[in-house]
Design goal:
The protein has 262 residues and is an alpha+beta fold. Helix content is 25%, strand content 32%. The strands form 4 sheets. Strands 10-15-14-13-11-12 form a 6-stranded antiparallel β-sheet. Strands 5-6-4-9 form a 4-stranded antiparallel β-sheet, covered by helices on one side. A hairpin with a 2-residue loop joins strand 7 and strand 8. The longest helix is centred in the N-terminal third of the chain and has 17 residues. The radius of gyration is 20 Å and the shape is globular.
Length: 262
C-alpha cells in the first residue's frame, strides 16, 4: 500500500485505503462491490488500484450520457453487470417555471440540506424548464418524500421510467494539447488561460479556483491526471494524460476545456 500512496496526494490516502478495502472484500466474497457516486478523480483512483489485480475488473455507470459522477462496480473478472446492478434512480423536478427560475446550485443546495453525503447524488442536469438528477436507489424514497420545496418555490419530485429520454449534456468540451513547465496550479492556469502567474495566483488566493469541487487557495498545489479545475468566470478544464516530456524537460499534457456559457 505504501507504494500506491506515493503516486497520489496525501489527502487521498483515506480514500485509497477505502478502495483497498473494497477490493479485498470483492476477493474474499468473490462477489461484486457497488460504490456510491464517484467523481472523475475518484473513478481514476479506483481504476488505477484495481488495475493492479488481474482477477478484478471495474465497471462504471450513470443513466445520463457523458455523466461526470458515476457509480462503480468492483467485481471478479467473470462478472458481467446489468444496468439494474448499479441501483441508480432518476428523478425529475416539476415546479412553476413561469414564475421562478431554478438553477443547478439551487437544486444541489436543497439535496445537500437533506443531510446525505454528496456521494449519494449523481449529476444534476438543468435545461430550461426541465430538471433531472440521479440518486443511489437506496435513498430514493427518502429523497422523494423530503423534497417539497426549493428556495421559496414548491416542487414535486417524480421518478422517471427506464425508457425516459434523459437530458443530454449541453457542455461542449474541446480537447487540446499543451506544454507546461510544471503541474503547479498557478502554472497550469496561467498557461491554459494565457494569463500571468501573478493573476492566476490572485484568483487562487481569492477562493475562485476549485480542484475536484474543493476550493484550493495554494498556488503551489500539485495537479494530477484526471483533475477537474473550475475557475469562476472562466469555465472548467479537465486534465487528461501526461504524454511525457519535451527535450527541454517540459510536460506534454492533454487537456479538455469547457468555456463558460454565454
Amino acid at each position: 500500500m505504501e507504494q500506491i500512496f506515493q503516486h497520489f496526494r496525501k489527502e487521498e490516502q483515506s480514500f485509497i485505503e477505502q478502495v483497498g478495502g473494497w477490493i479485498r472484500e470483492t476477493e474474499d466474497r468473490y462477489a461484486p462491490k457497488l460504490t456510491d457516486f464517484l467523481d472523475p478523480r475518484e473513478q481514476f483512483i479506483v481504476q488505477a488500484i484495481a488495475g493492479q489485480n488481474e482477477e478484478i475488473v471495474t465497471h462504471s455507470y450513470s443513466k445520463f450520457e457523458d455523466a461526470e459522477r458515476k457509480r462503480m462496480l468492483i467485481s471478479p473478472s467473470y462478472f458481467v453487470p446489468t444496468d439494474q446492478d448499479f441501483s441508480v434512480t432518476m428523478f425529475e423536478i416539476s415546479y412553476p417555471s413561469k414564475f421562478v427560475t431554478l438553477e443547478h446550485p439551487d437544486v444541489l443546495g436543497t439535496l445537500m440540506s437533506l443531510g446525505l453525503d454528496r456521494s449519494k447524488f449523481g449529476d444534476i442536469r438543468v435545461d430550461g424548464e426541465r430538471i433531472e438528477f440521479a440518486v443511489v436507489s437506496e435513498v430514493a424514497d427518502f429523497v422523494r418524500l423530503n423534497i417539497t420545496s426549493i428556495g421559496k418555490s414548491k416542487v414535486q419530485v417524480q421518478e422517471l421510467p427506464e425508457e425516459h429520454l434523459f437530458l443530454l449534456n449541453t457542455e461542449t468540451w474541446v480537447e487540446e494539447s499543451h506544454t507546461v513547465s510544471s503541474m503547479r496550479l498557478d502554472t497550469i492556469i496561467a498557461s491554459l488561460f494565457n494569463i500571468s502567474r501573478q493573476k492566476a495566483s490572485t484568483f487562487i488566493h481569492g477562493g475562485k479556483v476549485k480542484v475536484n469541487w474543493v476550493v484550493r487557495d495554494q498556488p503551489a498545489f500539485e495537479l494530477h491526471e484526471s483533475d477537474l479545475i473550475s475557475i469562476r468566470g472562466f469555465g472548467r478544464i479537465r486534465l487528461g494524460m501526461i504524454e511525457g516530456r519535451t527535450k527541454k524537460d517540459k510536460i506534454r499534457l492533454q487537456v479538455g476545456r469547457m468555456e463558460p456559457k454565454s
